[in-house]
Amino acid sequence: MSIRTIIADEDNRMKACIRYYLKAYKQIEVIDECNNGMELVDKLLQWQPDLVITEIDLPLLNGLEVMKRCSVQNLDIPFIFLADSEEFAFSAFELGATDYLVKPIKKSRLYKATEKAKRKIAWKNKNKELVSFNNLPVKFSKGMHYIKKEDILFIEKIERKSYIYTTDKVFETQENIGDLLYQLNDTFLLSHRSYIINLEKVAEVRSSKESFIASFNGVERGAKISKLKINEVKRRMGIQLKM
């Protein structure tokens, strides 16, 4: 399995160092390099790589913002961050980063990070092949839930957990919201960085301060829709929403 990788860093010496380290890692294929965050966003949309290794403090747009934009674009790509300190480590892992390396980067530490990314990519590919068309397999502390996709109203991310809402039950899991979205069909949309909604189950959409709220029959809790996503919700639902 070739892991198509993009490296991003303003420092050309750091890019060259990472590229040199990765030469010995036969499964890594460096397909492009970037100097700033805006360029990285463009390259991600162009290439849709398997892995990103990036400095967190990029010019124009930092690495965390790049990762957030990936979520908005439904791009579930593992990120390995490089940083001068541990200052942004918590924020990076909260977003679902695969690893966070503090400079100077050791070859052995980089290899461990790429191994973690490799396992994540392999797990996604395997589950994409094995998952049943109708059920979403969800890990929890004692095993697996198999939830009928048609029963899912929305999924909410709170800190490191995801909550899957159906009409009669809420399922709690440690699984990343991006990994869950990867296993769902086009009925579902990442409406906000912390929410996935089932467009066929939305009963109403109303405006709420800086975003919008989708409501569902049978549950009191609603799901957020960002301003960036509201037009896509309108288009894909095929109706004019009164807001």
TrEMBL record:
The question of whether DNA-binding is a record keyword is answered with yes
Keyword field: DNA-binding
PROSITE patterns, A to Z: HTH_LYTTR, RESPONSE_REGULATORY
The family database entries (Pfam families) matched by this protein are listed as: LytTR, Response_reg
**In this protein, which residues make up the domain named Response regulatory?**
4-118
InterPro entries assigned: CheY-like_superfamily (IPR011006), LytR-like (IPR046947), LytTR_DNA-bd_dom (IPR007492), Sig_transdc_resp-reg_receiver (IPR001789)
Protein origin, superkingdom: Bacteria
* Keyword DNA-binding included in the entry's annotation: yes
Q: Could you tell me one molecular function GO term of this UniProt entry? A: DNA binding
Q: Which residues form the HTH LytTR-type domain?
A: 136-239
Q: What is this protein called?
A: LytTR family DNA-binding domain-containing protein
In its UniProt entry, the species of origin is given as Niallia hominis
